[in-house]
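Attaching the record inline, Q. Sequence:
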Amino acid sequence: MDFDKFTFKEILENINQWIETDVINPEDIPSIELYMDQVTTFMDKELARTKRHPDDKILTKTMINNYSKNDLLPPSNKKKYSKDHIILLIYIYYMKNFLSISDIKTLLSPMTNRYFNDFRDDSTDKSSLSMSDIYAEIYTLEKKYTAKLKENIDEICDIADSEFKEASEYLKAFALVSMLSYDIYAKKQLIEHLLDSVTTESSDNSASKETKTKKKKPDKQAKPNE
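Structure, as predicted:
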């Protein structure tokens, strides 16, 4: 992009359009099981606007197989994928842009164990929230947050414009990108620290339980004197 030809004003006019992302409505996720081809077609259609380039792939068969191999996604049921599979794939699609596979696994494993269809662990009340319920709540929160996100970006744009009012269009755009980049960096750091703290706490609890178990083992009784 030639920043001196594409004015900062034009950038501001396009921001509201650029920030609009496709978040799949809970009601649009099929309740019936789908074959892999149908899953990739559904995701490609629903998330088409998130592509940066026309030939970008939203989801492929190879990706789905890799997610299963890495225990991010439970196995299909006779080559069919449920609504819960699709919900997990949606989460993975968004998170893989800024989190590692291991971090995504750390975050989603409890979700899978507790709420994935009948694949819930024994400690879960089967009458509790389903993955569909959780996704619907998160969807509502995201819609509310989008409005605040727009306000925040508008504020950043105003700062970039006012601080470099007499400068070139490039410097205004550079200031905007720099502030947005720092925002992303800071939030990514926060997410990673949160996940690391959860992982560390989980490891400490496991080690503590193991130590207590060892302590509870009775000492071997001494043989009575003959």
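Residues 169-216 form the longest helix (48 residues). The chain has one domain: 8-203.

More tomorrow.
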